[in-house]
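queue> pop job 88
queue> type: inverse folding (structure -> sequence)
queue> payload:
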């Protein structure tokens, strides 16, 4: 009958075998049990169609939103609207902002559509960014307005309504001017909702 070793007198071989059993358990856990996922978080999309249709009903101008952009790439993530307050002040200023994540494989960028009928609307939305040139958007002339930090924006004003498309002015991940031109080409008038 083999003599049993007393605790504390194990051989190196015994320790290696024990370690091997523990490591096999760890490998099995990692392969089959640990959750896996992408480092990228899911983009939370907000509904903009109904809200912009309601905004169009209350706005003194016809707002625009994109149409025909691929929904799996251009994802609206924020919406903010300001409607005229009316009353004795007579303020008829309306403003809408939609933020987008341009969700391409391996690269996300941010873009923003802003529009207002405020006097000096471009300055109101973008500050004192001078025009550095123009870009053609399907025959319409838009002004290019980059800033000193490398952020890009293109603007267009017609019939008292200013539209500003920019990269969100955030750190990193901003849309390119080509992205903004793509967004500009997609803009279509919003049909207001009807009240019943």
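queue> result:
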């Amino acid at each position: 009958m083999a003599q049993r070793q007393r605790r504390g007198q194990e051989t190196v071989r015994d320790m290696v075998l024990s370690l091997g059993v523990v490591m096999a358990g760890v490998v099995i856990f990692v392969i089959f049990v640990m959750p896996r996922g992408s480092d990228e978080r899911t983009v939370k999309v907000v509904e903009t169609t109904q809200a912009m249709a309601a905004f169009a009903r209350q706005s003194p101008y016809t707002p625009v939103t994109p149409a025909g952009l691929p929904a799996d790439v251009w994802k609206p993530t924020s919406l903010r609207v300001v409607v005229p307050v009316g009353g004795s002040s007579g303020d008829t200023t309306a403003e809408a902002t939609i933020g987008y994540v341009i969700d391409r494989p391996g690269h996300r960028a941010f873009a923003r559509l802003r529009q207002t009928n405020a006097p000096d609307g471009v300055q109101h939305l973008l500050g004192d960014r001078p025009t550095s040139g123009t870009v053609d958007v399907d025959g319409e002339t838009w002004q290019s307005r980059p800033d000193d930090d490398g952020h890009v924006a293109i603007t267009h004003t017609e019939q008292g309504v200013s539209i500003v498309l920019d990269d969100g002015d955030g750190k990193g991940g901003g849309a390119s001017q080509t992205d903004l031109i793509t967004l500009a080409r997609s803009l279509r008038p919003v049909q207001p909702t009807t009240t019943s």
